[in-house]
Design goal:
Helices cover about 30% and strands about 5% of the residues. By secondary structure, it is mainly α. The chain has one domain. A two-stranded parallel sheet has the order 1-2.
Length: about 150
Protein backbone atom coordinates (compact mmCIF):
# COMPACT_ATOMS: atom_id res chain seq x y z
CA UNK A 1 0.00 0.00 0.00
CA UNK A 2 1.49 3.37 -1.00
CA UNK A 3 2.60 5.45 1.99
CA UNK A 4 2.96 8.98 0.58
CA UNK A 5 0.90 11.15 -1.75
CA UNK A 6 3.75 10.92 -4.30
CA UNK A 7 3.71 7.09 -4.18
CA UNK A 8 -0.09 7.11 -4.30
CA UNK A 9 -0.13 9.35 -7.40
CA UNK A 10 2.54 7.23 -9.11
CA UNK A 11 0.63 4.02 -8.32
CA UNK A 12 -2.66 5.56 -9.46
CA UNK A 13 -1.18 6.76 -12.76
CA UNK A 14 0.42 3.38 -13.38
CA UNK A 15 -2.79 1.49 -12.52
CA UNK A 16 -4.87 3.71 -14.80
CA UNK A 17 -2.53 3.13 -17.73
CA UNK A 18 -1.40 6.77 -17.55
CA UNK A 19 2.23 5.68 -17.24
CA UNK A 20 1.98 4.28 -20.78
CA UNK A 21 1.80 6.31 -23.99
CA UNK A 22 -1.78 7.54 -23.60
CA UNK A 23 -2.25 9.63 -20.47
CA UNK A 24 -5.15 11.85 -19.49
CA UNK A 25 -4.90 15.60 -19.78
CA UNK A 26 -6.00 17.83 -16.90
CA UNK A 27 -7.28 21.39 -17.10
CA UNK A 28 -8.36 23.15 -13.92
CA UNK A 29 -10.19 26.44 -14.34
CA UNK A 30 -10.46 28.42 -11.13
CA UNK A 31 -12.60 31.53 -10.89
CA UNK A 32 -12.50 33.91 -7.95
CA UNK A 33 -15.50 34.56 -5.77
CA UNK A 34 -17.98 32.52 -7.77
CA UNK A 35 -20.66 30.34 -6.25
CA UNK A 36 -21.19 26.88 -7.73
CA UNK A 37 -24.52 27.86 -9.32
CA UNK A 38 -23.49 31.17 -10.93
CA UNK A 39 -23.19 29.85 -14.49
CA UNK A 40 -25.48 28.22 -16.99
CA UNK A 41 -24.29 24.60 -16.54
CA UNK A 42 -26.04 23.97 -13.20
CA UNK A 43 -29.20 25.63 -14.54
CA UNK A 44 -29.02 29.30 -13.58
CA UNK A 45 -32.28 30.92 -14.80
CA UNK A 46 -30.74 33.78 -16.79
CA UNK A 47 -26.92 33.76 -16.78
CA UNK A 48 -25.36 32.72 -20.07
CA UNK A 49 -21.84 31.30 -19.79
CA UNK A 50 -21.40 29.23 -22.97
CA UNK A 51 -17.62 28.70 -22.79
CA UNK A 52 -17.51 27.50 -19.19
CA UNK A 53 -20.70 25.48 -19.81
CA UNK A 54 -18.97 23.64 -22.65
CA UNK A 55 -16.03 22.80 -20.38
CA UNK A 56 -18.50 21.54 -17.77
CA UNK A 57 -20.36 19.47 -20.37
CA UNK A 58 -17.27 17.90 -21.97
CA UNK A 59 -15.21 17.47 -18.81
CA UNK A 60 -15.87 16.96 -15.14
CA UNK A 61 -17.73 19.33 -12.88
CA UNK A 62 -17.50 19.15 -9.12
CA UNK A 63 -20.99 19.82 -7.81
CA UNK A 64 -20.35 18.69 -4.23
CA UNK A 65 -17.26 20.66 -3.27
CA UNK A 66 -16.39 23.40 -0.83
CA UNK A 67 -13.60 25.80 -0.03
CA UNK A 68 -11.80 25.45 3.26
CA UNK A 69 -11.20 29.19 3.46
CA UNK A 70 -13.29 31.68 1.50
CA UNK A 71 -10.38 34.08 0.98
CA UNK A 72 -8.70 33.89 -2.45
CA UNK A 73 -5.08 33.08 -1.63
CA UNK A 74 -5.65 30.59 1.22
CA UNK A 75 -8.28 28.82 -0.92
CA UNK A 76 -5.92 28.68 -3.91
CA UNK A 77 -3.10 27.32 -1.71
CA UNK A 78 -5.46 24.64 -0.34
CA UNK A 79 -6.52 23.68 -3.87
CA UNK A 80 -2.91 23.28 -5.02
CA UNK A 81 -1.61 21.47 -1.94
CA UNK A 82 -4.64 19.58 -0.65
CA UNK A 83 -3.91 21.03 2.79
CA UNK A 84 -5.82 23.31 5.16
CA UNK A 85 -4.63 26.90 5.67
CA UNK A 86 -3.28 26.15 9.14
CA UNK A 87 -0.97 23.59 7.51
CA UNK A 88 0.23 25.50 4.42
CA UNK A 89 0.33 28.82 6.35
CA UNK A 90 -1.14 31.05 3.62
CA UNK A 91 -3.56 32.93 5.85
CA UNK A 92 -4.07 36.17 3.90
CA UNK A 93 -4.04 37.37 0.29
CA UNK A 94 -0.48 38.71 0.51
CA UNK A 95 1.38 35.82 2.10
CA UNK A 96 3.77 33.76 0.01
CA UNK A 97 3.29 30.04 -0.27
CA UNK A 98 6.58 28.36 0.51
CA UNK A 99 8.58 26.57 -2.15
CA UNK A 100 8.44 23.47 0.10
CA UNK A 101 4.62 23.51 -0.09
CA UNK A 102 4.75 23.98 -3.87
CA UNK A 103 7.15 21.05 -4.21
CA UNK A 104 4.47 18.89 -2.54
CA UNK A 105 1.59 20.29 -4.63
CA UNK A 106 -0.36 18.14 -7.08
CA UNK A 107 1.11 19.99 -10.10
CA UNK A 108 4.62 19.19 -8.80
CA UNK A 109 3.67 15.52 -8.41
CA UNK A 110 2.32 15.47 -11.98
CA UNK A 111 5.46 17.24 -13.23
CA UNK A 112 7.61 14.54 -11.59
CA UNK A 113 5.59 11.95 -13.53
CA UNK A 114 6.49 13.61 -16.84
CA UNK A 115 3.50 15.92 -17.30
CA UNK A 116 4.03 19.40 -18.74
CA UNK A 117 2.34 21.51 -16.09
CA UNK A 118 1.49 25.18 -16.49
CA UNK A 119 0.09 27.95 -14.36
CA UNK A 120 -1.53 30.77 -16.30
CA UNK A 121 -3.28 33.68 -14.64
CA UNK A 122 -3.53 35.21 -11.20
CA UNK A 123 -1.32 33.42 -8.67
CA UNK A 124 -1.95 35.94 -5.88
CA UNK A 125 0.05 34.32 -3.11
CA UNK A 126 2.55 37.01 -2.28
CA UNK A 127 3.74 39.76 -4.60
CA UNK A 128 6.53 37.80 -6.31
CA UNK A 129 5.65 36.93 -9.95
CA UNK A 130 8.61 34.52 -10.34
CA UNK A 131 7.87 30.91 -11.34
CA UNK A 132 7.08 28.47 -8.55
CA UNK A 133 8.30 24.86 -8.24
CA UNK A 134 6.24 22.25 -10.05
CA UNK A 135 5.41 24.12 -13.24
CA UNK A 136 6.93 23.59 -16.67
CA UNK A 137 5.39 26.85 -17.91
CA UNK A 138 4.55 29.89 -15.82
CA UNK A 139 2.66 33.01 -16.91
CA UNK A 140 1.37 35.33 -14.24
CA UNK A 141 1.61 39.05 -13.73
CA UNK A 142 3.18 41.30 -11.10
CA UNK A 143 0.86 43.22 -8.83
CA UNK A 144 -1.87 40.58 -9.20
CA UNK A 145 -3.97 42.89 -11.37
CA UNK A 146 -3.61 46.03 -9.24
Amino acid sequence: MPQTRRQFLAASLAASGAAQEVRPNFLFVITDDQRWDIMGAPGHPFLQTPSIDRLAREGSRFSNAFVTTSLCSPARASFLTGRYAHAHRVLSNWENISDDEMRRSFPALLYEQGYETAYIGKFHMGRDPDPRPGFYRWSTFPGQGS
